[in-house]
Amino acid sequence: MPTIDCSTYQIKVDEAWDQLVNFIIQLKPSSIFVLVDEYTEENCLPVLQVHVPLEFKILKHVAGERNKNLDVCQELWKSMVENRADRKSLMINLGGGVIGDMGGFVAASYMRGIPFIQIPTSLLSMVDASVGGKLGVDFMDRKNMVGCFKDPLLVWVHTPFLKTLNDRQLKSGFAEVIKHALVASEPHWKQIAALNHLDEIDDWGTLVEWNIRIKNRIVLEDPFEEAGRKILNYGHTLGHAIESSLLHSEYMMLHGEAIAAGMIMAGYLSHLKLDLDYNKHREIAELIKRIYGIHTEGITTHLDSIMEFVMSDKKTVNNQLRFVLISDVGQAEYNQPINKNTIGGAIQHYVNMA
Ligand SMILES: NC(=O)c1ccc[n+]([C@@H]2O[C@H](COP(=O)([O-])OP(=O)(O)OC[C@H]3O[C@@H](n4cnc5c(N)ncnc54)[C@H](O)[C@@H]3O)[C@@H](O)[C@H]2O)c1
């Protein structure tokens, strides 16, 4: 299976485990910390321990986006100090995007930075979060408000981990697969456009690999998101606002579920502003509806809060909203100005699809 070259590191997909063992041994770390949550501790840590028979110190936090914050970082830094982590210690982040983003940030800032390896275990973290060096945590309920760019030493992808991921989480990760096709790859869109259910996918290894390659290509051209990398935020301005607004409510949506809703809204805006063909927009929206359904109640009861979060989006400049839109599948444009009223129309359009 392949090795993908990124800027300063490599991503290895389904390679023989002894490569990882040798990589770590050559580093000669003074100690190895493995960050898990309760689900990756149960499902993934035993696999790692069998294949990488080295001495690990386990750091654990409670799973979920609600725990991707500075309080948990402080607890992790405290455990590391108590367990005498030093500059030669290695951190291995074994988990989904929450562990990758937060564990990477904890490592990148502990003693001004210790080396870390990402072992993504969810679909979302394999195809997206572990690629491209963005790390961070949520702050004041705003997504990824505190963080940094720092590359790992290595990303180790073992796609059999997906077997223990539940259906809802698998679907959540698939939203980023849809996104990659919509912003950058028409041929891949054709492969997924007619899906009714994710059970129809039989080769996850290939799907994960092509997604990593698409994201890596975009990141290599613009590592710090000053220009072209922004297209990866397709569906995220409204998606993040929905995710943040509903985070502590009974309507809580997973990251990918919120992004899926955000992509239907962005598709409608793309039709209005960039003449995306209306039938194409409907085709995209229907795929998303088949897989995720339409979530109206949480969104309609949190409209004010969603608008507030949209207005505080990181991409908003001088009070003007900036969206990523598509003129066709595979043709994305960033920094598209959109006014507040138009956004209300896009949300209503989504709700009407129910
Ligand atoms: N850094 C980036 O570029 C980037 C890109 C996209 C998303 N993200 C971030 O990623 C996060 C979402 O990631 P996620 O969807 O992986 O969520 P997550 O990390 O919460 O993982 C989802 C759930 O699945 C469980 N899990 C993970 N792997 C498992 C496995 N193999 N078997 C059983 N259970 C498993 C986890 O314990 C967790 O409960 C968000 O915080 C988002 O902001 C970051």
What this model shows, in words?
The chain is of the alpha/beta class and 354 residues long. 49% of the residues lie in helices and 17% in strands. It contains 15 helices and eleven strands. Strands 1-2-9-6-5-3-4 form a seven-stranded mixed beta sheet. Strand 5 (90-95), helix 5 (97-109) and strand 6 form a beta-alpha-beta unit. The protein is globular. The N and C termini lie far apart (42 Å). The mean pLDDT is 96. Nicotinamide-adenine-dinucleotide is lined by residues 37, 39-40, 43-44, 63-65, 68, 95-99, 101, 121-122, 124-125, 128-129, 132, 134, 143-144, 161, 164-165, 169, 172-173, 255.
What is the element layout, followed by pairings?
Elements: E1 3-5, E2 10-13, H1 17-27, E3 32-36, H2 38-43, H3 45-51, E4 57-60, H4 70-82, E5 90-95, H5 97-109, E6 116-120, H6 123-129, E7 134-139, E8 142-149, E9 154-157, H7 167-184, H8 186-192, H9 204-221, H10 236-246, H11 255-274, H12 278-292, H13 297-301, H14 303-311, E10 321-328, E11 331-338, H15 340-352
Parallel strand pairs: 2-9, 3-4, 3-5, 5-6, 6-9
Antiparallel strand pairs: 1-2, 7-8, 10-11
Helix pairs in contact: 5-6, 6-7, 6-9, 7-8, 7-9, 7-11, 10-11, 10-14, 11-12, 11-15
The protein binds nicotinamide-adenine-dinucleotide.
